[in-house]
Amino acid sequence: MRNDLHDDSRSDTHRNRLLFRSWHRGTQESDLLLGAFADSCLSSLDGNQLRRFEALLDCSDPDLFDWILGIGVPPAEHDHDVLQLLRAYWAGPEMGRVVSTVQ
Q: Which domain holds residue 60?
């Protein structure tokens, strides 16, 4: 039981770091794309998905922007379920809500 608590604590710390990184990319557009997704979806990602999301955060903003919006084709190592979740998130009703709050 004690190891489970330690693992949960480590997982929460990891999620918090990813959340911070998502909102502090350097460009407002990337902050919004990744931060809003992280706010809504990070808590539901498993450990492997968190690692894939973290790998995406290591990519350049222009690449991520193109991949998420479907403008560019990501390399195979980044074309996975988490990127699909990001695309689905921004293709759904969240896009309208975020755009209306920004304007």
A: 2-102
